[in-house]
TrEMBL record:
It holds the Pfam family CH. Coiled coil: none annotated. SUPFAM superfamilies: Calponin-homology domain, CH-domain. This is DMD protein. InterPro entries: CH_dom, CH_dom_sf. Residues 7-113 form the Calponin-homology (CH) domain. Gene3D superfamilies: Calponin-like domain (1.10.418.10).
Length: 163
């Protein structure tokens, strides 16, 4: 039950993010890992609710993901009171930590307007399964146990599976 509630919370949060950033063509958030590593999603989310805080084009044209992430985290701290919980270098990777991203986006959700339309939720539900929320892959591991084959299925985020 807790897993279902978490999945529903993630879906609502992802719906809110997608709805908030839909007017930013450079941004397409489909998960809570790789979609955030270039820094554009954090900045678009902030700018969509508080366009008075910075010039989007100036931030979007910055050459470094670390610079864009640092900008977003500093704006959130200075103007929204959200502590800088993430290091830009830890997010600007091939596979940022999902729980850390979720925690930070939840902090933004708590202080920014929270309207989520049913249309935005349906849109997330329609995302291909491989890109939705966790981007999970099924990896089968077979073990021999007393001449009986046992099959296990593990769910790993695709951005982090190193097989």
């Amino acid at each position: 039950m807790a897993g279902l509630q978490q999945t529903n919370s993630e879906m609502i949060l992802l719906s809110w993010v997608r709805q908030s950033t839909r007017n930013y063509p450079q941004v397409n958030v489909t998960n809570f890992t790789t979609s955030w590593s270039d820094g554009l999603a954090f900045n678009a989310l902030l700018h969509s609710h508080r366009p008075d805080l910075f010039d989007w084009n100036a931030v979007a044209s910055q050459p470094s993901p670390v610079q864009r992430l640092d900008h977003a985290f500093n704006i959130a701290r200075q103007h929204l009171g959200i502590e800088k919980l993430l290091d830009p270098e830890d997010v600007a990777t091939a596979c940022p930590d999902k729980k850390s991203i979720l925690m930070y986006v939840t902090s933004l959700f708590q202080v920014l307007p929270q309207q989520v339309t049913m249309e935005a939720i349906r849109e997330v539900e329609m995302l291909p399964r491989h890109s939705r929320v966790t981007r999970e892959e099924h990896i089968e591991v077979r073990e021999q146990h007393f001449s009986q084959e046992v099959s296990f299925t593990f769910l790993l985020p695709s951005c982090c599976s190193k097989v």
